[in-house]
Design brief:
By secondary structure, the protein is an alpha/beta fold. The chain has a single domain, classed as Rossmann fold (3-Layer(aba) Sandwich), CATH 3.40.50.2020. Helices cover 28% and strands 31% of the residues. It contains 5 helices and 9 strands, in the order H-E-E-H-H-E-H-E-E-E-E-H-E-E. The strands form 2 sheets. It has a 7-stranded mixed β-sheet, sandwiched between helices. It has a two-stranded antiparallel ribbon with strand order 1-2. A hairpin with a 7-residue loop joins strand 1 and strand 2. Helix 3 crosses helix 4. It is globular and about 40 Å long. The structure holds adenosine monophosphate.
């Protein structure tokens, strides 16, 4: 039996000028979640729309094709787009998880939250020295999580080639915590 391997009609091969507006229209803002004063940007409606999801992935792949050996997805929403992007790039996928979730030996990095600290981890053998790593998450807010993920990659002697997020909350200036890292956001709020 022959398989039809042509890309689906909805996958855009060239630049996709309407993508940011279409994604902006799909994101749902939930006020006061998970705590008063925070407006949570929910991207589950984007995941429900296969054509839009594929356009988001195709946009990242156009920018990053050939540049990454491994994609890191940050728990939990970074796992979803990150694993699809890894598949399309032909790259490996590595989960970065909250403390205590990974079963084997880990590197850990802690960072400050508004109240308290958080810790994320990666398996010590997940990345080989010199591997080129793309970090993926849904939202860049204060930048603490992404900066900690970048530090985890460095602890493995691997190299971060970039950070990809769907949405950057620009008023929180998270990008500043990422120094010279190539950060790309599809949308900036
Ligand atoms: P930060 O470390 O402050 O940059 O926060 C980034 C992490 O928290 C990401 O993994 C996001 O999924 C999540 N996050 C932070 N703020 C929001 C928000 N307003 N809406 C949705 N997710 C958020």
């Amino acid at each position: 039996m022959t398989q039809d391997l042509r890309p689906a009609d909805h996958v855009v091969d060239g630049p996709d000028p309407d993508l940011a507006a279409d994604v902006a229209a799909s994101l749902r803002a939930i006020p006061d979640f998970p705590e008063p004063g925070v407006v949570f940007k929910d991207f589950t409606p984007l995941l429900l729309d296969p054509a839009l999801r594929d356009r988001v992935v195709a946009d990242v792949v156009r920018r990053r094709a050939g540049s990454a050996d491994v994609v890191i997805g940050i728990e939990a929403r970074g796992f979803i787009l990150g694993s699809v992007i890894a598949h399309e790039l032909g790259a490996g996928f590595v989960p970065v998880r909250k403390q205590g979730k990974l079963p084997a030996q880990t590197h850990s990095v802690s960072y400050d939250l508004e109240y308290g600290t958080a810790t994320i981890e990666v398996h010590t053998d997940a990345l080989r020295p010199g591997q080129r790593v793309l970090v993926v998450d849904d939202v860049l807010a204060t930048g603490g999580t992404a900066a900690a993920a970048v530090e985890l990659v460095r602890r493995c002697d691997a190299e971060v080639v970039g950070v990809e997020v769907v949405l950057e909350l620009g008023f929180l200036h998270g990008r500043q915590r990422l120094g010279g890292t190539d950060v790309h956001a599809l949308l900036v709020d």
